[in-house]
Amino acid sequence: MSHDLKKVVLKPAEVKEVFGIPEGTQANMRWAKKGPRYFKKPGGRGIYYLYSDVLEWITANPVLTRDSLPENQR
Hints:
- Helices cover 35% and strands 11% of the residues.
- The protein contains three helices and three strands; from the N terminus they run βααββα.
- The chain has a three-stranded antiparallel β-sheet with strand order 1-3-2.
């Protein structure tokens, strides 16, 4: 798969390729009701994520380092 970041819907393998989250980790997060929102294919076994949901989940709680803080807050 090419890294087409304009693709809106991602399968778990594509989430792994684009964001580096292993498929097993994704499955564990789904089981625990954690992680980004996901969708199940109606009448099937397919799992799908929205690119924007995964990106939002990843960027929701950044770890602030001294270098990322404004100069007056260091």
